[in-house]
Amino acid sequence: MTPPPAARQGPGARGGGGVHSGGVPPTSLSPLYLPSLLPIFVAAGALAALSWRGGRPGLAAYNLSLIAWAASLLLSAHPDTRPFGERLLMLGFFVAAGFNHAVAEDQSWRTPAVPGLYVGAAVMTALGALPQGLFLREGGTVAGPYWTPMFGLATWASALPILYLLDRIRLTTDRGERQRLAYLTLSGFLGTVSGGVNVLLTMTGRHDPLGLYGVLLSLALLSYVVTTPKLPKLGHVVEASLRYSAMAALLSTLFMALVLLGLRAGAGGALWSWRALFLGFLILLTAQPALSWARARLAASLFAGRQDVHGLTEALVKSEARAEHSARLAELGTLAAAVAHEVRNPLGVISACATVLERQGADPDTVAELRAQVDRAARFAEELLEVGRPSPLTLRPIGLHDAAEVAASEVRRALGLPLELQVEGAQEVRGDHAQLVRLLSALLENAVLAGAKTARVRLQAEGAQAVLDLEDDGPGVPEALAATLFEPFVSGRSRSSPRPGTGLGLAIARGAAERHRGALTLEGRSEALGGAWFRLRLPFDPEAR
What we know:
Order of helices and strands: EHHHHHEEHHEHHHHHEHEEHEEHHEE
Mean pLDDT: 77
Helix content: 55-70%
Number of domains: 4
Number of helices: 16
């Protein structure tokens, strides 16, 4: 195989500025090359420790392999350790294997490529350690006879996870997850290209830190993306974190440059005296509030309409509050299930007693009222039980057009009130027919009891989801109820209503939507009909991944 034209071959080859008397090709070591390796050690070491503690061995292995590769670069760049360091340069293959491992771990990607790449990395490292210099010599500045196939193999191994991530981005419908995968892909691409640039620059006799800068950028992306939990609206969290960190790094760099210039001028070049260092500490300490304000303002001005760090903090606080609220609702659901079981048995006895009273000639109106109240209490107990222990899904193909018609028919029959239903479009999903009809019945029942005479259902597809918009011509949802409408025991019906509400219908409806991996939301007031506007999103197949 023929090495690239830019690479010099053999100890006696002449290139660049000639050959030293000892037969070693001359190299140009940038004064920033070795210092550029230090943050790679620090960042990769910290990320490896955090990943290991967080149960992410693949990510930890990737960062440890980066440390080993950076150590081989450090040893091969120094003249005293060059013969030893050049034999370890093939440790870079473990970087490709580690990134494959990290992506497979993050995406639950079951592939035999990961163990195979680790074995291949071990073989390549062993071959690279041989004294023959099969791949690289003279600290990586001279190509060996098998440099070209080695470089191609490394490129192929590095491209595998990137191609997989690009395919995942194409298939993912969630915006936040797509954005997270895009950042992860960019991190892998930057690391791969930057590693290749470092190799090619070294083979021209230049130990230049340009490639190392790209590796550091890839680590910065990786540290924010992979270690961030997969939460709703994750893309906004990652984006805000990266934006704020970039602003912080930029302003801190500019400020430190001014401080160093001032200290150098004031101290006459004696930057390392204790007085100069103490003065620098005091300057940085007093400037922190101003720097924090400047970072937030700069981020807000450059990215108008986006959250700054304060908005991000508020969002996280609200997220914790919602988590605590969800825990309390779970406890309430358990209690509700227990209460429902205890109530149903006495209701059965009361119903039997009503039948006995009727046979004994009791007042028919009194017996009818007694049965009506028993039915109301029984319905409340059933809804309590559904909130506490919802029924499992029985999935089958369901036309949402037909489900809406069935729900409207049940509401007309149960309430004895008129309702005109208009359905536009048709979509079919895999779902539980009874639960989806009950969901739509709850929405239509609330509309009719609020005074609506007409309801309209619009069906359309958005990506991998079916979207159902339900609007009515009623008075709409009061603003005071909008924020808590889907919470248990929240109802806008009074006791004088033809069918007083229990406050559980919409909570059950939202739970049914979420069990289908969908969402039920109040969109506000209908522009066409003037009443309430609800939107139901359902995946075409809840079991699809």
